[in-house]
C-alpha cells in the first residue's frame, strides 16, 4: 500500500517519540523532496532535522519531478510541501495521504484522496493497543504547536469507545 506523508505528521510523531508508529502501521512512507526540505529547515524542531539527516529505511524520499505535472484545484493556495505531497499521492495512486492542515485536507479529499493526520494515526495506534490515547494526545497538545478543537478530540474518543465496545479484546 502506497502511503504519502506531509511534514506535519512526521514533525509531531518525531517530537513525541512515536514516529515508529508509521512503519509499524504502513511499512513504508513516501514523501516528496519538498517535505524533506521542510523537515531540514532551520525553523523545524531539532529532533526532526536530526531524523531527516539520516532517514530510516522505511522512509523514501521521492526525488523525481514527475509528480509536478499532476494538478488539482486549490494546490496553488497550499505551501510547497503540502502541494507536493498531494501531487505525489495523486501521481503514485496512493491509498492514503497523511496531512494535518485543514485546507490541505480539503484539497486532497476534493481530489478523491483518502486522508488521515496525526490524531488519526494516534487513534489507530490506540485502537490497536500500541499506545495510550489520552496520554499521547495530552503530550501532543502540551509539547507541540498542534491545534485541534476539544470537539474533535471528543469525537475521536467516542469513536474509540464505540469500537472498543463492539470489538472487545480477549
Strand order of the largest sheet: 1-4-5
> How big a fraction of the residues is strand?
5-15%
Q: Identify the overall geometry.
A: globular
* Unreliable stretches: none
The total count of strands amounts to 5
Q: How many structural domains does the protein architecture include? A: 2
Distance between the termini: 29 Å
Q: Helix segment count?
A: 9
- Would you give the CATH topology of the largest domain? Rossmann fold
Compute the average pLDDT: 92
Major sheet size, sense and barrel closure: 3 strands, parallel
Q: Which CATH class of the largest domain is shown? A: Alpha Beta
- If you compute it from the alpha carbons, what radius of gyration comes out, rounded to the nearest whole angstrom? 16 Å
Q: Note the run of SSEs as H and E.
A: EHHEHHEHEHEHHH
Helical content (DSSP H or I, runs of 4+): 40-55%
CATH architecture of the largest domain: 3-Layer(aba) Sandwich
Q: What structural class is derived from the secondary structure elements?
A: mainly alpha
Looking at this structure, what is the CATH superfamily of the largest domain? Answer: 5'-nuclease
Amino acid at each position: 500500500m502506497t502511503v504519502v506523508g506531509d511534514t506535519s505528521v512526521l514533525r509531531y510523531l518525531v517530537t513525541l517519540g512515536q514516529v515508529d508508529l508509521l512503519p509499524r502501521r504502513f511499512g513504508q512512507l513516501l514523501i516528496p523532496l519538498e517535505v524533506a526540505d521542510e523537515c531540514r529547515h532551520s525553523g523545524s524542531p531539532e529532533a526532526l532535522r536530526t531524523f531527516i539527516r539520516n532517514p530510516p529505511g522505511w522512509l523514501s524520499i521521492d526525488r523525481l519531478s514527475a509528480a509536478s505535472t499532476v494538478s488539482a484545484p486549490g494546490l496553488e493556495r497550499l505551501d510547497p510541501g503540502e502541494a507536493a505531497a498531494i501531487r505525489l499521492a495523486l501521481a503514485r495512486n496512493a491509498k492514503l495521504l497523511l496531512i494535518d492542515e485543514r485546507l490541505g485536507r480539503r484539497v486532497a479529499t476534493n481530489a478523491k484522496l483518502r486522508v488521515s493526520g496525526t490524531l488519526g494515526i494516534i487513534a489507530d495506534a490506540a485502537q490497536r493497543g500500541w499506545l495510550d490515547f489520552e496520554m499521547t494526545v495530552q503530550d501532543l497538545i502540551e509539547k507541540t504547536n498542534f491545534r485541534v478543537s476539544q470537539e474533535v478530540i471528543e469525537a475521536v474518543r467516542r469513536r474509540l469507545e464505540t469500537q472498543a465496545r463492539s470489538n472487545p479484546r480477549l
